[in-house]
Specification:
The protein is an alpha+beta fold. The protein contains 4 helices and 6 strands. A 6-stranded antiparallel sheet has the order 3-2-1-6-5-4, sandwiched between helices.
């Protein structure tokens, strides 16, 4: 019988479960999503070997896609970074609602480098993975990661894991939105009763 430490598939499964538990605990820690997205990205970096990562959200009124949080960049480098719906990998992922992968070593013409240049890491060592964050059937943002690989790793597994994390973030957004709507409804009812 193979020990768990000797079986790479079992080790990956344990690592994934550990990551998902840590992210669930982080998302449960605060009602304000802005308080938790940074720690979620940091935890992903620690568990996945992610060089950089970002969480972007779509402003439905302007069509701008703004960086809500980023990991692996010097402070302030992500500020002001914005995409338009359909622009670059991130914009296309949000527009289509489908994940995208720019494989290891690719220049990727759709990589806009708006969230800091990738020049600090050799391009042949990086793959870019981007998945949509959905609330219901609507893509409201994207979760992306620059992965540094010492060897070939199946993209399908990493895309699946990022989709699970994005789904957790989307569910947290939905719950917070419902809570805010309920609070607003109660405040309006309270004002109505006072009048």
């Amino acid at each position: 019988m193979t020990a768990r430490g000797d079986n790479p598939t079992a080790k990956r499964a344990v690592d994934e479960l550990s990551l998902l538990l840590a992210i669930a605990e982080i998302l449960d820690a605060s009602v304000d999503l802005r308080d938790v997205v940074g720690p979620v990205l940091k935890t992903m970096a620690e568990h996945l070997g992610m060089a950089r990562g970002s969480l972007t959200l779509l402003d439905r009124h302007t069509g701008d896609i703004l960086v809500e949080a980023a990991h692996g960049l010097p402070p302030g480098e992500e500020e002001g970074a914005r995409h338009r719906l359909g622009e670059g990998v991130t914009g296309k992922v949000i527009q289509s609602g489908r994940p995208a992968v720019v494989p290891q070593g690719s220049e990727g013409p759709l990589l806009l480098n708006r969230v800091g240049p990738r020049s600090r890491i050799r391009k042949q060592d990086i793959s870019f993975i981007c998945v949509p964050i959905k609330v219901g059937n609507e893509a409201v943002g994207a979760l992306s990661a620059d992965h540094v690989f010492p060897e070939k790793v199946p993209f399908g597994e990493d895309v699946r894991l990022l989709q699970i994390v994005a789904s957790m973030v989307g569910q947290a957004m939905r719950l917070r939105q419902s809570a805010m709507e309920e609070r607003t409804r109660h405040e309006e009812e309270y004002r109505r009763l006072q009048e």
